[in-house]
Write a structure and sequence with these properties.
binds 5'-O-[(R)-(carboxyoxy)(hydroxy)phosphoryl]adenosine, 2 domains, Nucleotidyltransferase, domain 5, binds zinc ion
Length: 338
């Protein structure tokens, strides 16, 4: 029998719904982005995000069902991001999914957002199977995870302060590029010299953790000092030099993790995984060490519900369904019970 999962995602600033068949085939993938409104404020405003999710979620879900040409009664389960994320934003998706599951008599499957990002690789590349080492880098998280199988994960490293995407967004704001900063820095950096300024690369002894607050402060100081002295500087050089520092750390820790776990495959996930320089460097390094490298296309890197439906499929097949008492869990850790 075919297993059809409806996925719902509302953890940050995208309202998304998707229907996925047997954990592999995307039948629909609808994403309503709120970027335009948050751009006005230079970042995500949680209260506005919640309200916009409430406005969009019905239409987005209806479209996901109609694009997939399925009825509620065809579904096997409803999977929803239960955390981590903005609590008000998560609550919209969780409440909506609970109501749908109850009304349609369907099982409810809570999904961890990072597990969803990792699962995007199964949708993009049917040949990808655990175990592998995955770098999950987005606006909210920077983790190196060993996916031991579809449902068990070991966290090998995490950020001790800012997430990589958060650092991109803050530096973009300092350079006057606007929100979201990642794609804008990625583009501008192509015109700059990545060796113009040596920004710090933080490594910890005996740990694969990240720290991006030092490089962020260094860029801020560089820009403010230059402005105070009335010196001209190239924003493209700063963007490129910042990007070199961040991607150096992301790549070197991920390669160390792969060697430590004796993995033969490395995957990338999360919004920052669409960064062109990260992909380029990771491709060079994985090739050097004989590792296979996979990453999803840009639409499956940033927040979407197909990845939630895919992760939800594996949870559902293993019998892990949730209760209607499910609550939003804004800071739940990967591996913690949902
Ligand atoms: O996965 P995502 O949509 O949301 C979270 O779960 O946080 O990731 C969004 C983040 C933002 O910080 C954005 O600036 C960053 O991913 N991002 C990028 C690129 N595209 C998106 N960062 C660097 N380079 C990119 N090309
Ligand atoms: Zn995300």
């Amino acid at each position: 029998m075919n297993t059809l999962i409806l996925g719902i995602e509302s953890s940050c600033d995208e309202t998304a719904a998707s229907v996925v068949l047997d954990g592999r085939e995307i039948l629909s993938n609808v994403i309503a982005s709120q970027i335009d409104i948050h751009t006005l404020y230079g970042g995500v405003v949680p209260e506005i995000a919640s309200r916009k999710h409430t406005e969009a979620i019905c239409a987005v879900t209806k479209k996901a069902l109609s694009d997939a040409n399925v009825k509620l009664s065809d579904l096997s389960a409803v999977a929803v991001t239960a955390g981590p994320g903005l609590v008000g934003a998560l609550l919209v998706g969780v409440s909506f999914a609970k109501a749908m599951a109850y009304a349609a008599g369907l099982p409810l499957v809570p999904v961890h957002h990072i597990e969803g990002h990792i699962a995007a690789n199964y949708l993009a590349h049917p040949e990808v199977k655990p175990p592998f080492v995955c770098l999950v880098a987005s606006g909210g998280h920077s983790h190196i995870v060993c996916a031991e199988d579809y449902l068990s994960f070991e966290i090998l490293g995490r950020t001790r302060d800012d997430a990589a995407g958060e650092a991109y967004d803050k530096i973009a704001r300092i350079l006057g590029l606007g929100y979201p900063g990642g794609p804008k820095i990625d583009r501008l950096a192509k015109e700059g010299n990545g060796n113009a300024v040596q920004f710090p690369r933080v490594h910890f002894n005996d740990s694969l953790d990240f720290s991006f607050s030092g490089v962020k402060t260094a860029v801020m100081n560089y820009v403010h000092n230059a402005e105070q002295r009335g010196e001209n500087f190239s924003r493209a050089d700063i963007a490129a030099s910042f990007q070199e520092a961040v991607t150096d750390i992301l790549v070197s820790n991920t390669i160390k993790a792969a060697k430590m776990k004796k993995a033969d495959t490395v995957c990338l996930a999360g919004g920052v995984a669409s960064n062109s320089r990260l992909r380029e460097k990771m491709a060079e390094e994985t090739a050097k060490w004989g590792l296979k490298l996979y990453y999803p296309g840009p639409v499956l890197c940033t927040d979407n519900a197909a990845m939630i439906a895919c992760a939800g499929y594996h949870e559902f097949m293993s019998g892990k369904t949730g209760q209607l008492s499910l609550n939003a869990m804004p800071s739940v850790r990967l591996g913690q019970k949902l």
